[in-house]
Amino acid sequence: xxxxxxxxxxxxxxxxxxxxxxxxxxxxxxxxxxxxxxxxxxxxxxxxxxxxxxxxxxxxxxxxxxxxxxxxxxxxxxxxxxxxxxxxxxxxxxxxxxxxxxxxxxxxxxxxxxxxxxxxxxxxxxxxxxxxxxxxxxxxxxxxxxxxxxxxxxxxxxxxxxxxxxxxxxxxxxxxxxxxx
Length: 181
What we know:
Layout: H1 2-23, E1 50-52, E2 58-60, E3 69-74, H2 79-95, E4 103-109, H3 113-123, E5 129-132, H4 136-140, E6 148-152, E7 158-163, H5 169-176
């Protein structure tokens, strides 16, 4: 009798873990818990931001106007985020600097520079990472769970939003084709 009970519990735990992996990680909230952004959906202008990358340089979305942008929100503690990082690395290597060129940016939410650097080093990743330590940009974009990826066209308009992890490179490329002129 007790074995059946523990099997049911184990199955329930497994089911919950599968659901979390499929939909993404735990909710992400900003510092105030509310958003003043008017961002609603695809078709809106992507909110501009200015945050630092791992090298300490300030990056703004406005400075990238004229180029399509893939903007991925993530964290090192999120298993689905970690799972898609090698795919995003491949996209970064294959789609940056040669036609059709896309700017690939990842925004780590709420973690220190050293935590992110340690993770990138351990996974042999060198894609661009911006640090949203105070979660201001995540709040501006109304990020409720990670990973979440925005596909922004050259005019700065959000064309696609993908909530949850990518399972293969081709899936990312399908989204990219929607922002390439």
